[in-house]
Amino acid sequence: xxxxxxxxxxxxxxxxxxxxxxxxxxxxxxxxxxxxxxxxxxxxxxxxxxxxxxxxxxxxxxxxxxxxxxxxxxxxxxxxxxxxxxxxxxxxxxxxxxxxxxxxxxxxxxxxxxxxxxxxxxxxxxxxxxxxxx
Length: 134
What we know:
Elements: E1 9-11, E2 14-16, H1 25-28, E3 31-36, E4 48-52, H2 73-81, H3 87-96, H4 98-107, E5 123-125, E6 131-133
Antiparallel strand pairs: 1-2, 3-4, 5-6
Helix pairs in contact: 2-4
């Protein structure tokens, strides 16, 4: 990757190009603005600076969708209302993503894809006598 005759090592009058930058063929096509820096490094070795170019444009993601036609609306509403959950338990459930998992189980996925988690929605007692939906 080194280009030019700029020394990478300087000690008094002695200079040398002993610090090298290596990259694979694939990565080397993305290296930009390679240079030996003039910034002080507290060393006899000068810093080698460069940038790695990245793909331009926003990244897009294919998001999974739910099949709203198969949604059990009553079960979904009960789950989202948090019936039987005290405030602390509801926050813990929401933070752990169990409500989202339950919504996914109730909705199913479109097409012929089988959902990864089709376990039935269940309620179990938790600390304080409240119900945990998951």
